[in-house]
Amino acid sequence: MKRILMMSGALVLAAGAAMADVTPVKDVKVETDIKALSDPAAQAFYEGMASDLEAQIIADLGTAYNPDNAAGARLSVDIDEAELASTWENLTDVGQSRLGAQVNVYSDTDNSDFNNYTLSVSYPDIAVYLPPNSDISALTVDDPAYYQAMIELFAHEVVERL
Does residue 45 lie within any of the structural domains? Predict the structure, then answer.
């Protein structure tokens, strides 16, 4: 029991140290052109993705997010609709599914403080974000648990790169 508590304490300290190194952010914007998806069912399913991802990034930022911080960075995420469409077309083949986006980090007050990269997360990495006792073999890309796990993983990866 002591060993578990010591390991848990170490994880909490490591998480706290990691958050201390996160760039302060004052603005998060996530965009996607859902109308670019030709399948109406895909449009309906992914309709809230931009706002869901934006909310998850802000939640993961914790105290590093402060819209009143004039020196805070701005974070812009443009979701790749082609990857969404491809994932939807392979509805039952979650092994090939991905969520990708162009991520831009920039500052209004410091021109040297910027970053620009393409981020893509895929199915094999979502296992830790699935609810306990999830049957991974039964998941499809239209499963709410799969969707939430992809959102959480993507947000985590964005915050980790700040």
Answer: yes
Is 11 inside any structural domain?
no
CB 65 within 8 A of CB 28: yes
Q: At 35, which CATH number?
A: 3.30.160
Which tokens hold the place of 133? 């006792």
d(CA 127, CA 124): 7
Domain that holds residue 94: 24-160
pTM of the full structure:
0.83
What does the alpha-carbon distance between residue 54 and residue 56 come to, in Å, rounded to a whole number? 5
Secondary structure (3-state) at 134: coil
Among candidate residues 152, 101, 161, 85, the one with its CA nearest the CA of residue 125? 152
> 90: number of CA atoms within 13 Å, CB side?
12
| 47-98 pLDDT, tens digit each | 999 999 999 999 999 999 999 999 999 999 999 999 999 888 876 678 788 9
Query: What pLDDT score was predicted for residue 14?
Result: 42
Token pair of 8, please? 């848990």
Decide if 14 is inside a domain.
Answer: no
Residue 72: alpha-carbon gap to chain centroid: 20
